[in-house]
Every structure is written in C-alpha cells, then in structure tokens.
Amino acid sequence: MSRETVDQRRADEARIKKEGRLPPGQSLTLDFPILHVGQVPRFDAARWDLRVFGLVEKEMRWTWSEFIALPTVAQTCDIHCVTTWSKFDTIWEGVRFRDFVALFGIKSNVKHVIAHCDGGYTTNVPLDVMMDDDVMLAYKFDGKPLEPDHGYPLRTLVPKRYFWKSAKWLRALEFSAADKPGYWENAGYHNNGDPFKEERHQRRFGFF
Ligand SMILES: Nc1nc2c(c(=O)[nH]1)N[C@H]1C(S)=C(S)[C@@H](COP(=O)(O)O)O[C@H]1N2
Ligand SMILES: [Mo]
Description:
Layout: H1 3-18, E1 27-28, E2 49-54, E3 60-63, H2 64-67, E4 73-80, E5 85-96, H3 97-101, E6 112-117, E7 122-126, H4 127-130, E8 136-141, E9 144-145, E10 155-157, E11 170-176, H5 183-186
Parallel strand pairs: 1-5, 2-11
Antiparallel strand pairs: 2-3, 4-5, 5-8, 6-7, 6-11, 8-9, 8-10
This protein binds the ligand Nc1nc2c(c(=O)[nH]1)N[C@H]1C(S)=C(S)[C@@H](COP(=O)(O)O)O[C@H]1N2 and molybdenum atom.
Molybdenum atom binds next to loops.
C-alpha cells in the first residue's frame, strides 16, 4: 500500500469510528477478503432453485429466472467479519427478506431462520433480526452480479451480525420454532454474533 493509501485509510477509519460505525476490535479494510469452507459451487441456471420450508404457510420454490423477476431493493451498509475486518459503505442489491417472506407466509411460532447453502453450509439467525429493513437476499454487489467467490448467484446479507451469518450460495431457507446452530455456531462461534457486542465466540462455562 502506498503512503497515501495508508493515510487515507487511517483518516477513513478515524471518521467511521467517530460516527460509531466501527465495532470493538474491528478495523477497516479496503479489500473484499474471501472466506469460506469447501469449494465454490458451479452455478447452473437450468438446475438452480431456491426453496423455503419448515413452518411456512406454503412451501415454495423459485427457479433463477423466477427469482430475479421479484422486486428488488438497493442499499448501502457496513459489513463486519469475525476475523476483525470491517468494510464500510458496501452497495448491495437484491430481494428484501421481509418482502420475500410475504410471498409465502410463515406460522406464528417461527423464531429462527436457517440458511442452507450449496455444499452443506448452514447458519441460523433469529427471525426478528431477519425481518429488519436491512436484510436481503442479495445478488448484486457494487452494481454487478456477485462474484462466484462472494456467493454467486445468491447470498443472504445480514448486516447486523458478523459476516459468517451472511450465507453464500444460498439454496434454501428453513423457518423453525427451535434454534438450529449452523456450521460456525457448532464450531464454537457465538450463536448470536452481534459485532457491536463483540459476540465472537461461545462463552464456555468456567472460562470467561
Ligand atoms: N455457504 C457459505 N457461506 C458463507 C461461508 C461459507 O463457508 N459457506 N463463510 C462465511 C464467512 S465465515 C464469512 S466471513 C463470509 C465471507 O464472505 P466473503 O467471502 O464474501 O467476504 O461468508 C460467510 N458465508
Ligand atoms: Mo468469517
């Protein structure tokens, strides 16, 4: 990084901190790091589908062409990875989760949403967090289709949680009364994962 870039990055970080947008223990990155377990799945538009199941009023599935015909929203938000990088003012486009849920309806006892991805990765988020304005099923980043490494064709975007809860290569959403910790939650990451509370790891009784 050039001297100028380093100075600019410091200035940006100071401003963002002042604005209260830098969670504890995080620092600003200008790159877009790539983090996942397993292989990047190949996308086949003819075979891809998105399913909703569990405590839904109506089980449904969308093909890729059906899904991209749904109304979209665009938003700018900050993202925070548990490995301590944060990226600010990222621009996303996709289907707002709350609007998506209205298409099929869910039972009144739903408390948790579990994202299921190609390759078997899963992650859990409370329903009330998912229903926030800023949660979407995203397929564009910075005005362009998602890069395969970043979840093409579709990922969840949950800005108020650490980024492991934003599931890449999304294929199904499960609506559940019971909580179902996913890949990282079962591997010792915090079940809730709020960056502003620095909920990085599970508290193990007797350790903290
Ligand atoms: N399907 C899937 N989604 C995933 C992951 C994964 O391993 N598989 N990793 C998570 C983690 S730990 C992070 S930090 C972000 C990284 O997203 P990025 O590669 O677009 O930065 O994706 C999340 N979503
Ligand atoms: Mo991560």
